[in-house]
TrEMBL record:
GO terms for cellular component: cytoplasm; membrane. The keyword Ribonucleoprotein does not apply. It is found in: Cytoplasm; Membrane. Its main location: cytoplasm. Keywords: Coiled coil, Cytoplasm, Membrane, Transmembrane, Transmembrane helix. The keyword Cytoplasm applies. This is Uncharacterized protein. It is a single-pass membrane protein.
Length: 121
């Protein structure tokens, strides 16, 4: 029995060191879990930033496309109006010429101005 109590007394510092080591392992385990969680959050934040940047680029591209579309549309509208004006001027001068000929030759000429307006509208 004496032998057992001496041995227990000798094991006390070792047991104390073992308990301290177990506490340190527990602290390390909790720290690793927190670090892992924070690393996931950090990675998710970086991924979100990359996606945000990509989305901003796409939105800028869409805005540029809209601007180009509107510019092309207004240019085409201006060109359309210019063509209509030129064609109407040509038609009106042609009608004037034809009305002069109809007076000379005795037939009635029907104006095409109304027909052209209906087609272009």
């Amino acid at each position: 029995m004496k032998d057992m109590s001496v041995r227990t007394m000798e094991d006390q510092p070792a047991l104390h060191e073992l308990i301290k080591m177990q506490q340190h392992v527990n602290v390390l385990e909790r720290s690793i879990n927190r670090l892992s969680s924070k690393a996931e959050i950090y990675g998710a934040v970086h991924q979100e930033l990359r996606m945000n940047h990509a989305m901003n680029l796409m939105l800028k591209h869409v805005e540029n496309l809209k601007e180009h579309f509107e510019k092309d549309r207004s240019d085409l509208e201006i060109a359309r109006k210019a063509l209509i004006d030129n064609n109407l001027n040509d038609v009106l001068s042609h009608e004037r010429d034809c009305s002069e000929f109809s007076f000379i030759f005795g037939f009635e000429y029907t104006p095409m101005y109304d027909m052209i307006r209906q087609i272009c509208s």
